[in-house]
Amino acid sequence: MNQKEFNEVIGRQTDRCKSMLITKGSEYAPKAVKNAAVDRLAHFKKAAVVMNSTPKAALMGMLSKHLISVSDMCTDERQYAKEQWDEKITDSINYFLILRAIVEEELSEEN
After folding, report:
1. Which one of 54, 80, 107, 110 is at 20 to 30 Å from 2 when CA atoms are compared?
2. How many whole angstroms from its chain centre is CA 91?
């Protein structure tokens, strides 16, 4: 794969990630779409309470399911549809992006 093709793959993936985060944001935090004051990370904070842990740990629990699925797809001899790869890879990347937001929020609260 040459540099141009690689850049196109990355561009399409980042577009998918952004689109999915916006779509899921309206699903999981519907009021956040119209009200900027609504906490976009609320589901992870609620999960942390249920799990008696932290938002980061709750997120990692959710992410681990996706990482195991991607690992299985990578080591399985089966051929998977592009759409399935898109879904699993996008979900995994987005969990890391949400983790970034959680970390940023925690760091800003410390200062």
Report:
1. 80
2. 5
> What DSSP character marks residue 39?
-
Q: Which of 33, 30, 29 is nearest to 42 (CA)?
A: 29
- Measured between alpha carbons, how far is 87 from 27 in angstroms, rounded to an integer? 17
pLDDT tens per residue, range 7-39: 999 999 999 999 999 887 766 666 655 666 778
pTM value? 0.86
Q: Where are the domains of the chain?
A: 3-110
Alpha-carbon distances of 97 from 11, 36, 74, 100, rounded to whole Å: 16, 19, 22, 5
